[in-house]
Design a protein that fits this description.
By secondary structure, the chain is of the alpha/beta class. It contains 17 helices and 32 strands. The strands form 6 sheets. Strands 1, 2, 3, 4, 8, 9, 10 and 11 form an 8-stranded mixed β-sheet that branches. The chain has an 8-stranded parallel beta barrel with strand order 19-20-22-23-24-25-26-32, surrounded by 7 helices. A 5-stranded antiparallel β-sheet has the order 17-16-15-12-18, with no helix packed on it. Strand 8 and strand 9 form a beta hairpin. Helix 10 runs parallel beside helix 11 and helix 14 runs parallel beside helix 16. The relative contact order is 0.08.
């Protein structure tokens, strides 16, 4: 106490904190941060850049990137002694299918429309054409230039890369200010390149990841493939058509001016050859006959021959071209393993080619038909190389080359686009929908099966190169509850006789586009999906509507006389 006064302390009343209010404020802050983050992630373009070396797969100092028509090689090239090299596997797959490396023989084969060159790796290494590193084989870029119809630019940047173009008809558009090429079709996609205003970029086909109304997929002159927002593209789309660098390397096709009507003639001995004129009695409208003359006899590529000059002379006198048939299942060997063995070596392929070409030329025939049905997925690359090499000999001797292939449902791995590139015709065999080994009875060649075969083949083969093979046979099935169904093959005439003998009721089956009949028998139910003039007419409608090059039939002797007019009428309308 001082001067008798008492000092009072000034107490402030502390307000009690409201926990609910605090929680609401925190929630609002979190929401605001979320909104900002969402906006940044969806509405604010990223400026983050894709690492260029990572984009081109560069890991070592002596590697060089490579891009072809917008595709970037997964394995980069390499530079050695100032020479650039590209990986052969990628070259063969994406740049030039005519460069084929044969691992079995340690050699590579180059095919052009008129030339076949085989070079051992040892020889090519001495000429600096070929090098190998870490199990990867590379071919000289400069050597490649001489055998490939292509343009190429070496872009000196970080990293260096080769930008290659093999498409000489393409669309371009000009980029404007602030254009950005992104890795993905979103503003959050990493930046690949910021091309200068006025740069022309190639327009590529859209993919499933983009909205074409907002984005365009492009390839830039610097080798990047990505997406540009449409608002950064200026002017109209311009189509460019340039002269080819090597027009002599472009494959042309020996196609008939008229529609093909080819019938297969199964000839397994000289007696069959001698019966040609008799076999063709009553046949009309056919312009190509295909005798089965050559059979694979060994895994080394030996082929037997039934080629007959008298047969060819008879066919020519009747106005028919002759396309000799070579198959891999009627000879001494009959397995996928044997076919792979024969086609996987240069020596084996050459032996087959030399036999069938020399024999076809000797007897004066007009073409060759390859019916190799034991080609599996493993063998497909070797089969493609076989056809490339065979096409050189056929073109040299003026022979038409056609390739038989079951519908893509069974053989999608064959690579029909490549086969069609080098051969003249692809024959789509639209039968054996149900075979002797099928678990259920059914049609050999229903209309939906044929239509799907045509549609699927057209995805890879131009219609003017497609021949659709149809059956003159069906299967008579025996079905019961206790055992698996069994069947036997019947031609059209035998089928008609069976129907008459058994007095069965024939009904039209809309689902298969065929007449159908069945008969109750002691050991089960007999069923048959009938091939006749009516079913064939439905199939021919599908062939002509698709604009195909023609039709083939298996086989001569199984038909009834009325079907020839049906085929001719449809082809005349098509």
């Amino acid at each position: 106490m001082k001067n008798g006064n008492v000092r009072k302390k000034n107490y402030r009343r502390k307000k009690k904190k409201d926990p609910v209010r605090i929680v609401l404020l925190l929630a609002a802050a979190v929401a605001l941060i979320g909104i900002i983050s969402f906006a940044a992630g969806h509405f604010i373009p990223t400026s983050a850049k894709k690492d260029s070396k990572e984009y081109f797969g560069i890991r070592n100092q002596d590697e060089i990137g490579a891009a072809v028509n917008g595709y970037v090689f997964e394995t980069p090239g390499i530079v050695q002694n100032s020479e650039m090299y590209l990986p052969i596997d990628e070259v063969s797959q994406h740049l030039n299918h005519g460069f084929f490396y044969s691992e079995n023989e340690n050699m590579f084969i180059i095919t052009t429309p008129v030339e076949k060159i085989a070079v051992s790796v040892g020889e090519s290494a001495e000429q600096n054409l070929f090098i190998s590193r870490n199990g990867v084989n590379y071919i000289s870029y400069n050597y490649l230039l001489g055998y490939t119809d292509m343009e190429g630019d070496v872009v000196k940047s970080d990293p260096d890369r080769i930008v290659i173009r093999t498409d000489f008809d393409y669309d371009v558009r000009t980029v404007g200010e602030k254009a950005v090429v992104r890795e993905k079709a979103t503003i959050r996609g990493l930046v690949l390149e910021k091309p200068e205003a006025g740069t022309e970029v190639r327009i590529l086909s859209p993919d499933d990841t983009m909205d074409p109304a907002s984005w365009t997929r492009v390839a830039t002159p610097n080798g990047y493939t990505g997406y540009i927002e449409n608002k950064y593209l200026e002017g109209e789309v311009i189509h460019v058509s340039k002269e080819h660098v090597h027009p002599e390397l472009i494959y042309t096709h020996a196609l008939r001016e008229d529609k093909v009507n080819m019938v297969f003639h199964q000839t397994d001995n000289q007696a069959s050859n001698n019966m040609l004129a008799t076999s063709l009695e009553g046949v009309s409208g056919v312009n190509v006959i295909a005798p089965t003359w050559f059979y694979l006899q060994s895994p080394e590529g030996d082929m037997s021959s039934l080629a007959s000059d008298t047969y060819v002379q008879t066919a020519h006198s009747m106005g028919l071209s002759v396309w000799t048939v070579a198959n891999d299942f009627d000879g001494a060997v009959n397995s996928s393993k044997d076919t792979l063995s024969a086609l996987s070596t240069y020596a084996g392929r050459s032996k087959i080619i030399d036999t069938i070409v020399s024999e076809t030329v000797r007897v004066g025939a007009d073409g060759i038909n390859i019916d190799f049905e034991k080609v599996n997925a493993e063998c497909a690359p070797c089969f493609q190389e076989f056809i490339r090499e065979l096409s050189v000999s056929c073109r040299t001797h003026g022979l038409v080359l056609s390739i038989d292939a079951y519908v893509p449902t069974y053989t999608g791995y064959l690579g029909r686009a490549e086969l069609a590139r080098v051969a003249d015709y692809i024959v789509c065999m639209c039968y054996d929908e149900h075979t002797s080994g099928s678990e259920t009875a059914g049609s050999v060649s229903s209309l939906p099966f044929v239509k799907k075969g045509i549609r699927d083949t057209q995805k890879e083969v131009p219609a003017e190169q497609m021949i659709i093979a149809l059956p003159f046979f069906t299967r008579l099935w025996k079905v019961n509850e206790n055992t698996a169904p069994t069947s036997r093959v019947m031609g059209m005439g035998e089928t008609a006789a069976w129907l008459s003998e058994n007095a069965v009721n024939v009904v039209w089956d809309e689902q298969t586009g065929q007449n159908y009949a069945e008969a109750k028998q002691v050991d089960g139910t007999a069923k048959v999906w009938i091939e006749d003039a009516q079913s064939l007419s439905e199939k021919m409608n599908a062939v002509t509507e698709a604009g195909c090059a023609g039709v083939a039939e298996w086989k001569l002797g199984l038909e009834t006389q009325d079907i020839w007019q049906v085929i001719s009428d449809h082809l005349a309308r098509g």
